[in-house]
Amino acid sequence: MDTLPNLDAMLDTARSAVRAASALCMLVADSGPERLEKAGREPVTLADYGSQAVILGAVAAAFPDQGVLAEEGSAHLLAEGGAGSETVASLVAQVTGSPCGANDLADWIDHAGGGGQPVWAVDPLDGTKGFLRGDQFAVAVGLLDDGVPAAGVLGCPRLTIGDTTGVLLWGVPGRGAWMEPLAGGPATPISVSAVAEPASVRVLGSVEISHGDPAAIQRVVDLAGFGGGWVRIDSQAKYAAVGAGLAEVYLRPVSRPDWRERVWDHAAGAAIVIAAGGTVTDLDGRNLDFTTGPTLEHNRGVVATNGAIHELVLGSLADSEG
Ligand code: AMP
Ligand code: MG
């Protein structure tokens, strides 16, 4: 697919921004992060805002006219008072090596892009609840070209692949997918696993019960005869694990019929799994449609697999729901 003329430059920007943003998140993690409640929404931390400032500051500098869909805005951080903003600005300066004033901070967090194509889909800290628990989280940047995932980058500071803990993954559908240590080191190709025997299939779902339906996953596991174990982990680290061949299925049933998935929770991860040779659809077997703004209006849940057992998952889902 690989049609964007600037794709290599965009990927370079995305990779270095995600690397810096992941470092910022770990600095906050090491300092004992505070949970800031947002009315009616998921919790946030100073790391969410700092990570978004790092990523969108880089996008604003290099590709100011391209579109942006990102999770956070500066208003809530600024309303919290000056101390939080000052901490975030100094963390951003530390990980980027460039000054970050109060105006820069708000401008970068709120950078909305020029509305053109492609669109940067940014979740600066996916899995905030996991981050706060000391479990998995991910820094996620997806590139959408007319609504199709053209590339994805994930920083997973607590994920272990092989003997590396703390990994940067990226993928370009049609070209391939790679990982390298966040701490620095050579890039190596990744691919989905070749497992097709149900008895060996490993399944991933969300930790948060309200983000899915663990009983629905259990029904699919039982119906399909998946015997490799089913494990709950936070964030798009689930897509990373499927893309790197650590599991065969990421299943995200809907918690309630009116829930629509957020673009930034799926763009990066879906690109990586597809690039690594896997298949990503919704629960009904439809491709994810990223053309409808910040939410996936035409899809229900997500199924990401190694491809080999995708139809078996969809069939088991249909049987369990019918
Ligand atoms: P996970 O770590 O896989 O549980 O996913 C974290 C993401 O779940 C967050 O970034 C939220 O955008 C998203 N989320 C919040 N509420 C819901 C919900 N009711 N159903 C599904 N996902 C949700
Ligand atoms: Mg998220």
What would the principal axes of the Cα set say about the shape? globular
Present as ligands are: adenosine monophosphate, magnesium ion
Biggest sheet, strands in spatial order? 1-2-3-4-5-6-7
Largest sheet: 7 strands, mixed
Radius of gyration: 19 Å
Distance between the termini: 36 Å
- Give the strand tally: 12
One letter per element, helices H and strands E, the order comes to: HHEHHHEHEEEEEEHEHEHEEH
Feature tags:
322 residues; 5-stranded mixed sheet; 10 helices; 23% strand; binds adenosine monophosphate; binds magnesium ion
List the helices and strands and how they pair.
Blueprint: H1 7-30, H2 46-62, E1 66-70, H3 74-79, H4 82-96, H5 102-109, E2 116-126, H6 128-133, E3 138-145, E4 148-161, E5 164-172, E6 176-181, E7 188-190, E8 203-205, H7 214-224, E9 230-232, H8 237-243, E10 249-252, H9 267-275, E11 279-281, E12 302-305, H10 310-321
Parallel strand pairs: 1-2, 8-9, 8-10
Antiparallel strand pairs: 2-3, 3-4, 4-5, 5-6, 6-7, 10-12, 11-12
Bound molecules: adenosine monophosphate (AMP) and magnesium ion.
